[in-house]
Specification:
Length: 291
């Protein structure tokens, strides 16, 4: 370790991974980052983040590996790419939203002697940039003194939900949270779409909700984006569709029917087909209108 701080490899420098790597570096950690699109990792050089050409280059000599990728298969692919250089006893912090794929990732870690921490985060671009993510973590007590300073550098708080990352407790909590996010996102979008078509001033709807029991920071952010026609991506429609699919897959295995998420998933897919896939998930709003 450098200056008593672990050397950290960050695999994936997208909307969440880039600020995670940046905030770790700003807090004194030595960070090596890898991304499939190398230029995204290279963009972090101004924050003293080192760029690695391969996952193996990133993890070589690292004490902790963070994976911040789109889904379980991509996470597993990156770790397989890192396998020639990762050593037994290395702590692997799995930050991505992977749903039930957490079981396969945990099994992979166990087969190679890695210490597996299941630690998805709640938050999108701005909370990540401000180091205000909420970290939901499951992992052994023995690893917590090493990883807690990392979590403190990227988030506002950490909720430890279990002592075994292989339990998937944190990843399954993230699925529950995403069920709520789907409902909130489409609730705002559908309400504003209907207001416009009924001749109701959409700002009046926002004014009634604001400050009352139905208000939330999320409501204000997404309604403001829709009213401003600002689709700057905090979390994309396509990624939201992926997360909704993961929720539905888990619900099916659990024997739970989630009609709202099922409809929300279809709406995200419809908005993507209309050309809004790379825009912020608030653009699910467009699913309410003909293409």
């Amino acid at each position: 370790m450098s200056d008593n701080k672990p050397v950290v490899a960050v695999l994936g420098t997208g909307i969440i991974g880039a600020p995670v790597a940046r905030n770790l570096s700003r807090n004194g950690f030595t960070v090596r980052a890898w991304n499939r699109t190398r230029s995204k990792a290279e963009a972090l050089a101004a924050d003293s983040v080192l760029t690695a050409g391969t996952p193996a280059d990133a993890v070589r000599g690292a004490d902790v590996v963070l994976t911040v990728l789109n889904d379980g298969p991509r996470v597993l692919d990156a770790m397989r790419g890192a396998e020639p250089a990762v050593t037994a006893g290395t702590i692997w912090v799995q930050v991505s939203t992977v749903g039930e794929a957490v079981d396969e990732l945990a099994a992979y870690a166990a087969g190679r002697g890695l210490v597996f921490i299941d630690a998805p985060v709640q938050g999108t671009r701005q909370p990540a940039e401000l180091a205000e993510l909420v970290v939901m973590a499951a992992g052994p007590q023995s690893a917590r003194p090493t990883v807690q300073p990392l979590f403190d550098a990227i988030g506002s708080r950490t909720l430890w939900v279990g002592e075994d990352g292989a339990s998937g407790a944190a990843s399954r909590l993230k699925l529950v949270l995403n069920t709520w996010v789907v409902a909130l996102t489409h609730g705002v979008g559908e309400s504003l779409a209907l207001a416009g078509r009924l001749g109701v001033d959409p700002q009046h709807f926002v004014d009634v909700v604001s400050g009352g029991p139905m208000d939330s920071g999320y409501f204000r952010g997404k309604s403001a984006a829709i009213l401003r026609d600002d689709w700057t991506t905090s979390f994309s429609v396509d990624n939201a569709a992926k997360d909704a699919r993961l929720v539905l897959e888990a619900a099916e295995r659990a024997g739970v029917r989630l009609d709202t998420v099922e409809a929300g998933h279809r709406r995200f897919l419809r908005a993507s087909a209309q050309g809004h896939g790379a825009q912020d998930m608030a653009a699910g709003y467009f699913a309410g209108f003909p293409a």
